[in-house]
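Students often ask what a holo structure prediction actually looks like on paper. The answer is less mysterious than it sounds. You provide the chain, you provide the ligand, and the output is a string of discrete structure tokens encoding the 3D arrangement of the protein together with iron/sulfur cluster.
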Amino acid sequence: MEIIIAENSGFCFGVKRSVDLAEKALESKKNKYTLGPLIHNPQLVADFEKKGLKVIDHEQALKIKDSLIVIRAHGEDKSFKDKLIANGNELYDATCPVLNSIYKKIETKEKEGYQVIIVGDKKHPEIIAMESFINNGIVISDETEAKNIKNYEKLYVVSQTTNRFEFFVNIANKLEENNDSVVIENTICNATKLRQESAKKLAASVDCMIVVGGFNSSNTNKLYQVASLYCKNVLRIETVKDLPLQKLSKFKK
Ligand code: SF4
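The corresponding structure tokens follow.
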């Protein structure tokens, strides 16, 4: 059997950066935590927990004082970070630079009088954090919601960084149909784009494709969706234990 690894795969620079900051946090003498799992990779999160970096949720975080808290690459609600600092905590902020740049763009456009539209999953931490940087953002997740956005004079449209490009373009087109001036900013992250393109290219040329990543990862899920459009046999696994070896033996590539 021939095994090919996608040209672009593995951790993106934002995730690498957050893992590096978490490693640095381990050197601190303070109690140390990450607010939510550092990345959507349960094996890596478990490894950090063993080394002393405990995962806490928002409720627990509010009770913690004088400790070190790592903010993950997805970013965090702006006012929530302020509360943690007010409790004497030190933050290692691993918010991805790609997201910091989106926050700046939407803040500026809102000040210029645009209605900001964020195309993404309302419950995803990345989107919750993004919304906290503006006063009146609207998050939409599908075509129906896009069709209900009508008659705005100035719209500024951004995307969750992990969206499929075609999905975002389709929603943006719907918004253009019913509104006057629509500025579309494709904020799909380049690392995501490259991985999706590689997945597409590879999926079209193999008998079976295996997507490796956290079952709870939006990025992994989108790669699975992209691969499924071009290959009939796509498997999604988290660790080697999930590999159905017998089933795989019939494939050549
Ligand atoms: S925005 Fe892009 S580079 Fe940053 S963490 Fe997300 S996928 Fe990685």
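The domain at 13-96 is CATH 3.40.50.11270 (Rossmann fold).
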